Amino acid sequence: MSDSKAAVLVPGKIHARVLERFEGKVDVITAPAGPEPSLSEEDAQRITAVAVSGSFNASWIDALPKLEVIANFGVGYDGVDAKHAASRGIVVTNTPDVLNDEVADTTIALLIGTVRRLYQAESHLRAGKWEAEGPFMLSPFSLRNRKVGLFGMGRIGQEIAKRLEPFKVEIGYHTRSKRPELSYTYYGSLKEMAQAVDILICIVPGTPETHKAINADILSALGPNGVFINVGRGSSVDEEALLKALQDGTIGAAGLDVFYAEPKVPAGFLSLPNVTLLPHVASASVPTRNAMADLVADNVLGWLSERKVVTPVPETPVKG
Ligand code: NAP
Ligand code: 8YV
């Protein structure tokens, strides 16, 4: 390794394109991911940038005295301690916007798949049951005459809402601040919205405020015809309460792309007929993940060459 190049730490795995973009421009230092840093003192003293997909906590940040920038692979940066980084003057970046359309498309697919039990219908066909036993059951639910409430109406939430318009459903949302430019119904509280709608889509970031916000009380307000879709973060859901609500008919169905302790999925969900489960794939297409990888590389290389980043997070604002 040449000392003249900047040293960039990649803890754990990252999209291959990030590493391709770094080739010949920086020295990449790899380390096993985990709660505590595992690095030589020599490497720790050299590292000025980090590219991470997953978690980067205060212990890692404090192990790197020369650290200047942390580029997160993903728009949600709940795994990175951005407040701690800000207190040390370290810039944090994420990957907003380039994934909005992909995630919104996947949300609509997950919603319809869940409401109409399409994944279960395909399993029926694949198992030879169509021929052996007859047609798949009628889906208990439909999108017809539905009211949809979005918990979160940011970059992705707005793309989901736009896609819902042609489905002729009523659309509302709950966020902390009303967006007067939007014509959708605003609800001042999550509970009020859960009472008023019968499909609830979660697309808020994972924060202390949204932690387990979807609890037994909210699910009970959503009601027995209610459908819950989560494409935000698993941490926003009390999974025990959700499992119970699906088992005892407190709500009707759920479609989940994200889980509290990924990649672990509570076993109870696997045997339920009224749940559709995806392994966190909302942005997982080759073109969209390439665009996210490019943004990570642009942020790191831009900072190292010109002290400029494309997409800083609000906790660490930097002039582009
Ligand atoms: P964004 O533009 O920052 O929007 C976040 C929205 O959540 C805003 O409308 C915000 O409104 C609202 N919000 C935040 N905290 C809230 C709270 N305590 N109560 C109510 N509303 C709250 O973010 P985005 O780009 O749309 O992404 C949203 C999240 O989606 C990401 O952070 C990530 O966790 C998740 N995501 C998941 C996948 C996946 O693969 N499943 C892919 C991409 C993103 P206010 O600030 O007015 O409250
Ligand atoms: C990615 C995401 O799957 O952008 C996000 O916040 O959750 C997803 O797009 C993830 O960040 C990469 O592993």
What is the ordering of alpha helices and beta strands?
EHEHEHEHEHHHEHEEHEHEHEHEH
**Distance between the terminal alpha carbons, to the nearest Å?**
30 Å
Indicate the percent of residues in helices.
25-40%
Widest sheet, order of strands: 8-7-6-9-10-11-12
Q: What is the CATH superfamily of the largest domain?
A: NAD(P)-binding Rossmann-like Domain
Largest sheet: 7 strands, parallel
Average pLDDT for all residues: 97
Rg for CA atoms: 22 Å
Number of helices: 13
Number of domains: 2
- Which ligands does the model contain, each kind named once? NADP nicotinamide-adenine-dinucleotide phosphate, 2-keto-D-gluconic acid
Would you write up a description of this structure?
Helix 8 (155-164) links the parallel strand 6 and strand 7 (170-174). With 320 residues, the chain is of the alpha/beta class. The strands form two sheets. A seven-stranded parallel sheet has the order 8-7-6-9-10-11-12, with helices on both faces. Strands 2-1-3-4-5 form a five-stranded parallel sheet. Helix 5 crosses helix 8 (155-164) and helix 9 (190-196) runs parallel beside helix 10 (216-222). It folds into two domains: 7-98 and 287-306, 3-Layer(aba) Sandwich (Rossmann fold); 100-277, Rossmann fold (3-Layer(aba) Sandwich). It is elongated. The chain has helices at 16-22, 41-46, 58-62, 82-87, 100-115, 118-126, 129-133, 155-164, 190-196, 216-222, 239-247, 267-270, 286-306; strands at residues 7-11, 27-31, 47-52, 69-72, 91-93, 147-151, 170-174, 185-186, 199-202, 227-230, 253-256, 275-277. 2-keto-D-gluconic acid is lined by residues 53, 73-76, 99, 280, 283.
